[in-house]
Design brief:
heterodimer; A: 494 residues; alpha/beta; Rossmann fold; 6-stranded mixed beta sheet; 17 helices; 24% strand; B: ABC transporter involved in vitamin B12 uptake, BtuC; two-stranded antiparallel sheet; 14 helices
């Protein structure tokens, strides 16, 4: 047994996040750590790597009790965390990144560049990675950066590597390559904790699994003894949220028209959307659907074609004008694009509407509070007071506040870019219900998502993007995981 | 469900600038054997210029930017305003010139920061040098009678009809309260209203809190930043107007020297976050007054005025240290 974590408790400001969680990893295995968002996977890993101190519980690594785990201590013990967002320095070379703070020095602290580069090259050869050690990191592809992160961990002889969704930014060949490297290292006795949401990968690479739900240990076992359905059931617990809630609804006139619309990341998009419809947009990461939404909302400048909303041409490259034309966008990456961290729920809610009604200078606080109360009831926002900080809410409830923000602008065309990102299962189901309800009330909705089950729940039809173009339109009934993947990987044109 | 103890703690930490002021004021009360009403009112009077500049600086800081040019701007505007007064003899024209020219100086900063997207630190460092140099250079080359006959100082001509009322405005009192102090309070009230209760004010905070997020809310970030610099310029103009009303002259070499630093210090002492998004206008008033009281203490103790900046710097460090380290210590010892 390489790692034993037992009865781990951890609470943040009184809220328990881990409750008697446990995890055991053997030497030389790939162990899948599974759980929905918010199940406590990251917290458990942060405890293991010394980012957060644990409240109770024992951690035994490589036969040694680890009491007060520090980041340095866990690194020295041989645990390496390969983060999802890569911790590399773009302005430095590959070898500088690997040896940062661990430089090989000669007399007088002079860095021995030649031997460091040589050692890098040696390592890359052993791993069968073709990266030039003297290249600047900013010039590497995302997949190469991922491999560099892993190489960096291996260079200092990590015994346990934590891979947090390592395949998100990789294409199929690159995933194969990564898995090949993992297999080889496994044979040499290196262990892996593999965090992923992609079932096929989990079943392909892992030996055993542990499932967490709501901070509690649920189950563990051999991957060979189980199947995806069983794992899904373990992850989710109750299966209520899987109920099909889709129903067809009457649609109105065409309200949104894209004609040969082109911009950064997409080209020649032709689309007509009728009032009350829910249109799914999907494709691989970077296929152009998210880029299209940003351009429609004036974040980037269109290079050709026209965009018409409610019969009027929408002027390019101005978010404010897009809003005036009745378009709203719930942006992806909530933390970066939506959250105004120093502001209250109320302020976060009314901000967007106030850019439209800037002529009425003063804020009528009671009026705004009433509006907030209405949205709170309507969207079932779990908050105590409209004056609370936005950061006090969970991801799902934050997202509902931002939904209220855009409903408050009275926009009738809603662009939802990955609206359920980082939201737990229960809140997801609620958001789907709200989307269907809004469409029923006459809002026109475009939803960009990479999650196909999401599309099956709500989309009337779905446009599939590949390298910036729409390659296929699938009707609701045609939507299933295989078909969508078939078109989004452009398998149809092989 | 916030316990009453917690909410008291929150109010204390939000209004810590009042406590700092009271503490410094208590020291003053002790060392200045016998407080007088006039002495207290003098604090308000001497805080007026730096307080108004501080409000502008505070707005800029709330958007996450910085304006180093305010001190030089004060010298330039006040100097030129003296010239305008000497030509026209009109208080109203001088006031309009101050506000308008201030807005123009601010707009130069604003456009370069907001639209050209140059770093505010660099832009305002450059304009700091430029404005001060202009103030000194033009004082030398314009006809002597326009600067009131002085050699290197802009001096108001005291034979003008309106000179007495102008000077009286700067040094007079309404019901024992200095007029310039009343102006300061009015500016603080106005900007407290703007920052807390108007849509414009909330946008300023939103930009400082999350610039990308603000843009995604439809806020025109470039325009808003430019506007804030223009407002700061106009406020410096107002401060310049008070300056010449109080002093009847402006020395381009010393007027507003280091005022950008005092304004930043006042804002920070008043709880404005330098990374943007947080702080109160009321805090700046107290920050500025705290520094004025320190001046008074040094005078009362008959200390060399050269030690002044050291004490101001130390107090700034200590207060911020307590603000930052306090919560961390509390967290450590509460376990």
């Amino acid at each position: 047994m390489l790692l034993e974590m037992k009865e781990i408790d951890k609470a943040f400001s009184g809220v328990p996040v881990l409750k008697k969680a446990q995890l055991e990893v053997e030497k030389g295995e790939v162990h899948a750590l599974l759980g929905e968002n918010g199940a406590g996977k990251s917290t458990l890993m942060n405890v293991l790597t010394g980012v957060h101190p644990l409240d109770h519980g024992t951690v035994v690594f490589d036969g040694k009790h680890m009491d007060h785990i520090t980041i340095k201590g866990s690194e020295d013990a041989g645990i390496a965390f390969v983060h999802q967002e890569l911790n590399l320095f773009n302005e430095m070379t590959v070898w500088e990144n690997i040896f940062l703070n661990k430089e090989i020095v000669k007399a007088l602290g002079h860095c021995d560049k030649r031997s460091m580069v040589a050692k890098c090259r040696e390592l890359f050869e052993r791993l069968d990675v073709s990266i030039d050690p003297e290249e600047m990191v900013e010039n590497l592809k995302t997949s190469e950066k991922q491999l560099l992160e892993i190489s960096k961990a291996l260079f200092f002889e990590a015994k346990l590597l934590i891979l947090d969704e390592p395949t998100t930014a990789l294409n199929n060949d690159e995933i194969d390559h990564l898995f090949q490297i993992i297999e080889n290292l496994k044979k040499n006795g290196t262990s892996f904790i593999f965090i992923s949401h992609k079932m096929p990968e989990i079943f392909r690479i892992s030996d055993r699994y542990t499932v967490l739900r709501n901070g509690e240990y649920i189950a563990s076992g051999n991957i060979a003894d189980t199947n995806p359905e069983e794992i899904t059931a373990l992850l989710v617990g109750n299966t209520d949220s899987f109920k099909d809630i889709y129903e067809t609804r009457p649609v109105g006139e065409t309200v949104l028209k894209l004609h040969d619309y082109s911009g950064p990341g997409f080209e020649n998009i032709n689309l007509e959307v009728k009032k009350g419809q829910i249109i799914g947009l999907t494709g691989l990461q970077g296929a152009g659907s998210s880029e299209l939404m940003q351009c429609m909302f004036g974040v980037t400048r269109a290079t050709g074609g026209t965009l018409e909303a409610n019969g009027n041409t929408v002027p390019p490259a101005s978010t404010h004008r897009a809003m005036k034309a009745g378009i709203a966008m719930l942006a992806s990456n909530r933390k970066e694009n939506s959250v105004i961290p120093d502001m209250s729920l109320l302020e976060n809610m009314y901000l967007a509407e106030h850019t439209l009604s800037a002529g009425r200078f003063a804020i009528h606080k009671r009026e705004e509070k009433n509006k907030f109360e209405n949205y709170r009831r309507m969207l079932n926002i779990k908050a105590q007071d409209s004056g609370d900080s936005i950061l006090s809410l969970s991801g799902g409830n934050q997202q509902k506040v931002f939904l209220a923000r855009w409903l408050n602008t009275n926009a009738d065309i809603l662009l939802l870019d990955n609206p359920t990102q980082g939201i737990d299962v229960g809140a997801k189901a609620e958001i789907y219900k709200l989307i269907l309800q809004m469409a029923g009330e006459g809002k026109t909705i475009l939803i960009n998502t990479l999650e196909i089950p999401e599309l099956q729940k709500i989309a009337d039809y779905c446009a599939i993007f590949y390298e910036g173009r729409i390659v296929k339109i699938l009707q609701h009934a045609e939507l299933d995981e295989q078909t969508v993947m078939y078109y989004s990987t452009n398998a149809a044109n092989i | 469900m916030v316990s009453s103890k917690n909410s008291v703690g929150r109010i204390i930490s939000q209004y810590s600038f009042v406590i700092v002021f009271i503490a410094i004021f208590a020291v003053y009360a002790v060392v200045s054997n016998g407080l007088t009403w006039n002495g207290v009112m003098n604090i308000l009077r001497h805080s007026a210029v730096i307080g108004i500049i501080g409000i502008g600086m505070g707005m800029v800081c709330i958007t996450g930017e910085i304006d180093l040019s305010v001190g030089s701007m004060l010298a330039l505007i006040s100097g030129f305003a003296v010239v305008i007064f000497n030509i026209t003899g009109s208080i109203a024209v001088s006031l309009l010139f101050c506000l308008g020219f201030g807005a123009l100086c601010g707009a130069i900063n604003g456009v370069l920061v907001g639209y050209v997207k140059m770093p505010a630190f660099i832009v305002t460092l450059a304009t700091m040098l430029i404005y001060r140099s202009f103030a000194q250079y033009f004082c030398q080359i314009i006809p002597k009678d326009l600067c009131g006959g002085g050699s290197s100082v802009y001096r108001m001509i005291n034979s003008k009809d309106s000179y007495q009322s102008f000077y009286g405005f700067g040094n007079g009192k309404i019901a024992t309260v200095p007029i310039v102090g009343v102006v300061l309070i009015l500016v603080v009230v106005l900007f407290t209203y703007i920052t807390t209760s108007t849509k414009f004010g909330k946008k300023v905070y939103a930009i400082g809190s999350n610039e990308k997020g603000a843009a995604m809310n439809g806020i025109n970030v470039n325009l808003m930043k430019t506007c804030v610099f223009i407002i700061t310029g106009a406020l410096v103009g107002a401060a310049a107007f008070l300056w010449i009303a109080m002093n009847a002259s402006s020395d381009p070499a010393t007027t507003g020297k280091s005022n950008e630093m005092y304004a930043i210090a006042s804002a920070v002492l008043g709880g404005i976050s330098m990374s943007g998004g947080r702080g109160k206008c009321l805090g700046i008033l107290f920050g500025a007054m705290s520094y004025t009281v320190i001046d008074k203490i040094i005078v009362a103790l008959k200390m060399d005025s050269l030690i002044n900046d050291a004490i101001k710097g130390i107090i700034l460090l200590v207060v911020i240290l307590i603000q930052l380290a306090g919560p961390r210590l509390k967290e450590r010892f509460s376990k």
